Amino acid sequence: MHVRWIAALGFVLIFPAATWAQTPMQEVDVLVYGGTPAGIAAALAAASDGRGVLLVEPTKRIGGLTTCGLSHPDFRTFEALNGTYRELTRRVERYYRQTYGDDSPQVTDCLHGTHAEPGVNLLVFEQMLAEQSRIRVLREYRLVAGNTIEANSFPAVKSVTLADPSGKRSEMAARMFIDASYEGDLLAAAGAKFRVGREARGEYDESLAPDDADGQLQAYNFRLCATRRAENRARVAAPAGYRRDDYLGVLPLLANGSIKSVFGYPSACLYKAQIPRLPNDKVDINDVSRGLVRLSLPGENLAWPEGDASTRQRIFDEHLRWNVGLLYFLQTDEAVPEKFAAEARQWGWCADEFSDSDHLPPQLYVREARRMRGMTVFTEHDTDPAPDDARSVLHRDAIAMGDYGPNCHGTAHEGSRFGGRHTGEFYKAVAPYQVPYGVIVPSDVTNLLVPVACSASHVGFCALRLEPIWTSLGQAAGHAAGLAIEAGNRVAEVPVAALQRRLHATGSATIYFSDLLPGDDDFAAAQWWGTAGGFHGLAATPKKPGQRGKNIVGQYYEAFPDHAAQLEMVLDAALAARWQKLAAELQLSHDKLPAIDGRLTRGQWLRAAWKLRGT
Known about the structure:
By secondary structure, this protein is an alpha/beta fold. The protein is 27% helix and 18% strand. It has helices spanning 37-48, 83-100, 105-109, 118-130, 185-189, 201-204, 250-255, 309-332, 338-345, 458-464, 467-487, 496-505, 523-532, 573-585, 602-611, and strands at residues 25-33, 53-57, 135-139, 142-151, 154-163, 169-179, 194-195, 224-227, 233-234, 261-264, 269-273, 282-286, 348-350, 371-372, 398-402, 407-414, 421-427, 433-436, 448-449, 551-553, 556-557. Strands 1, 2, 3, 4, 5, 6 and 19 form a seven-stranded mixed sheet that branches. The longest helix is centred in the middle third of the chain and has 24 residues, at 309-332. It is globular and about 85 Å long. The model is unreliable at 1-23 (pLDDT under 50).
């Protein structure tokens, strides 16, 4: 017999995916729309809390950009990786070890599991979901409508209407909804407030914002997966609508030496071949930041966020034509100097990737679309240093952290596509920063959480729009949904301290430490105390804001300096006084804390304080 999750009864009875559309109404505890890494993390977290979850992905392929070409992820230090994203990397590394051997080049090239072939990331995500029997996955089901009701004077989502590839519609009900789509389609259907475009500099006093508000968006492009390995090299074909004349403008740049190579890093090239390379001689190809010729097309994507399926397909096709057509031109056109043509012909798409989409990624890199207006708006200031501090501003209600910094590939373009320049482009070095809970909570819908199209200014969003951070926000959303169901509360009423405890217990970080990682004995205690403010003020702001450690390779660095807990150090009198004051604020029993005797270490004191929580 096929039966379904019935939340009120608290047990799981499962339909095969094919039967969902055959029943008038389905109901689950948590419905997650968008099989992005954030959506997968949300589903896993909610399921681990005992909730029945339906994960709905509108395409054939789960994993978002992490399985669609973005294999060179955006983080600065390995110490920043935590939670579900860190688990992904650990499993990826284990896959390469088991498949090729501990001493294989594939293990070296995967860079501790952070750099995987798209198909390997997909395999690992599929395995992670398959291990959770409480999760059902629906692929190729597109959101048509959100159906809301009034609940205790607040709007709530009752159900969503989904359409399968044939157009047949099904209605799915849930107690909690999570919008993990890049576009924020569910939040819009639910009637939550959102914004598209850039705020004026004066609105949040952001140095990177434009003088006046406008509708510009960060540009999109494809993250292509390419190789020079002959036995796995698929031919580059002319894309639909290819026009030779579109690419003639590159010829003067090749002739005058402005472009040194077709593929390169990080500049003076046409295709950024990210370093380090991926296992099995594959390369993640991206837009060349501040380059003379760009894969990204600012302005061409303006209709994407609120566009219907046909509008998005048109924009998808235009980006594909430009990104692929340029390489086809360089490989085949007789006007291209042989030096560049010969180099271009060495490259092709990976024959063992994306076999059902001509070896090209089936998803466009949507860097920014809708942005929710939630309980908290994350801005550039949330990445700034705390006063006279090496650490960024403190958020005691943090549910995630990041270490990359605000970065934007441009929002408009001046001049020709050959030799012109993107405007609205910026890259700012900052110290690791925290992300408050209110960033994923709508101000106007009671049972919806939004970890991807989250609440931020344009500049603030440019610090959050990275898959490791989105994955952390997704994990937090999944646990928050579970807590809201447990207590029968609105998502705005979820006790953040309880959410943080759940996150810390599962290896998810809310503040950055260079010397205490998930799995360490003191990880949860240090996360609790650090998020309360215990490790702020230990070092002054460096002369160079956002000072990083020594470069490892490409965009990856050793740990940020002055971000260590150093629990082995003796607790000096000045810090002891600060910690005792904080302990009083947190209502810890002062008489049960250890005496400061000149020998007591930070770790010994912290472990004693950790035991007093809730007493």
